[in-house]
Every structure is written in structure tokens, then in C-alpha cells.
Amino acid sequence: MKPLTRIAIVLDKSGSMGNDHGNSTRVAETVEGYNKQIREIVSNAQSQDIKVSLFTFNQTVYEHIIDADAKELTEASVDSYRPDGWTAWYDGLGYAIEKLKDLGKNDPECSYLVITISDGQENNSTHYNSNTLRQKIDECKATGKWIFSFMGCSDSDIKEFRETTGSKGSFQWSNKNSGDTSKSMRYASAKLGDYLENRSKGLDTSDEDYWLPTGACGPMGPTGATGCIGSYGDGGVSLNCAAVDIQLKNYVDKEVLSTTDSTFSKGNVAKWN
Predict the structure, then answer these.
(1) Is 4-212 assigned to CATH 3.40.50.410?
(2) What pLDDT is recorded for position 173?
(3) Half-sphere exposure of 122 toward its Cβ, with a 13 Å CA cutoff?
(4) What gap in Å lies between CA 54 and CA 59, rounded to an integer?
(5) Cα 66 to Cα 77: distance, rounded to the nearest angstrom
């Protein structure tokens, strides 16, 4: 039997993710980054069973793809991603967990990967707070089957994620300069490929190791320490880490897929229990 993995991508679509915040290419780069991860998932879907769900959030949580067979996934169009509004990050992540737990209730051997991508701090959740979200995450992690990973663009984002979730799996990316988001998302695809390669062998990865550059060595030091994983401590793996550049040099981009124009624009408002 092939290993079964459920992946949830939880994407921020609040106003600060738009082009009017100092980077005229941010929307296009974010969508291309999402598409790169979809390509990576599809390329690994022959050796294992992968089910994918996509959620977005501003002040409202939306579900766009629910438990789709990875082999049937398509890419998203830039026009379908229109950021606006506030940031209900706790609600977005909490709802994704609820859905995945329900989907996998009859699959005891299933493993779960939840990737959250956000550039801003929580400011509008109504269903979850930091305590209730942490409780939900702790319950999942106690099974040994769940990984929670986060991409944020500032030290405060990473710190909030770690304090709220108790997870160390984080990657600090930049959205200030043209090309930074693209580089960040490409690295995310490379690490997703590493994770799925392990899953094809029936292996699980800890969220502490998820973002660690392949071949990196030495202890995970505090923010500002030198070395290939110098900022893996409170600040997460850094975009400017030398080992990240090495991994990206060796990473092979996957084949472009067909595009669906309504990936982000067509979806359902979350139905809370």
C-alpha cells in the first residue's frame, strides 16, 4: 500500500499581500510560488497517495480545494488571487486542522502537512485565539503524524508562530524586493520535495527539520549565529542562508501544468461546527 499524505496549504490573502505595499510584483510572485508547490506535489504523486486542500483567509476563511487527488491538480491564475482585508490567521489555520482531522478520521496511517504562508500578524480571528489554537495543534502533534510549517517575512511573524503553535518549523522570507518572494517560494518547493521523497518511503519528518537545508550541519543556533543554519533559532531558516542558495542551485524546477482561472476566486466560506 502506498503511503497516504494529506497536505493543506493555508494562504494569507489579506490586503498586505497585495501589490500596493512596496512591491509591484508581489501578487504574481506569490501565485507563482503556490504553483511551484503544486508542481512539486503532482510530480511526487505517482509514488504515493497525496490528497490536497487549499484554504485562504483575510477576515474570512475560504475553502477552495478539499481533499483533491494530487494527480488532478492544476495551477492557479494570477487574476484569481486578489488580496484585501484583515488577517484572521488563527481562524484560517484552525479551520484547516478541523477539516483535515475530519477527512482523515478513517485513515489511521495518514500523515499530515499543514503549510501556512502569511506576511502579517494576526488581527481579526473570531473562532480561535492563541490558546485554543495551541491546544488543537498540541493534540495533533501528540499523534506523531502532523507537521505544522510556516513561512513568514519578519522576526515577529516567526516568533508569533512558534509561541502559538509550539512548532519550530519556520522559514523567514522577504517580500520587500522584487524576486525575493520568488526565491522564497522556490525554496519552499524544494523542501516540500524533500518531505514528499521521505513520505514515499513511509518516513515522517519533524517540523523542526522540515525547513533545514539539505546537507546543513551543526546545532540550531540562536538568531544571528553564524553558519549555514545560523538563524534557525528564534528567526527560522533565513532566505539569505548560504545553505539555502546551495540547495536552490541543485533544485530542478518541475514541469508546468495547465491553469485554472478560478482557483482563488471560486470557493466557499468556511462552515464552522
Answers:
(1) yes
(2) 67
(3) 20
(4) 17
(5) 18
What ranges do the domains of the chain cover? 4-212
DSSP annotation string for the chain: ---EEEEEEEEE-SGGGSTTSS-TTHHHHHHHHHHHHHHHHHHTTTSSEEEEEEEEESSSEEEEEEEEEGGG--EEPGGG----S---HHHHHHHHHHHHHHHTTT-TT-EEEEEEE-SS-----SS--HHHHHHHHHHHHTTT-EEEEEEESSHHHHHHHHHHH----EEE---SSTTHHHHHHHHHHHHHHHHHHHHHTT----TTTTTSPTT--S----TT--STTTT-STT-EETT-HHHHHHHHHPPPPPP--EETTTTTS-EE----
A 10 A CB-CB count for 200 gives 17
Measured distance CA(31)–CA(34) in Å, rounded: 5
Sign of CA dihedral 133, 148, 31, 180: positive
How many Å apart are CA 207 and CA 148, to the nearest integer?
6
Confidence of residue 183 (pLDDT cuts 50, 70, 90): confident
What is the rounded end-to-end Cα distance, in angstroms, of the chain? 33
Please, what is the angle between helix 26-43 and helix 180-200, to 10°? 20
pLDDT per position as a tens digit, 154-178: 677 777 888 888 887 777 766 566 6
pTM: 0.89
179 CB-near residues (< 8 Å, 6+ apart): 29
User: Which residues are CB-neighbours of 176 under 8 A, at least 6 positions away?
Assistant: 22, 23, 153
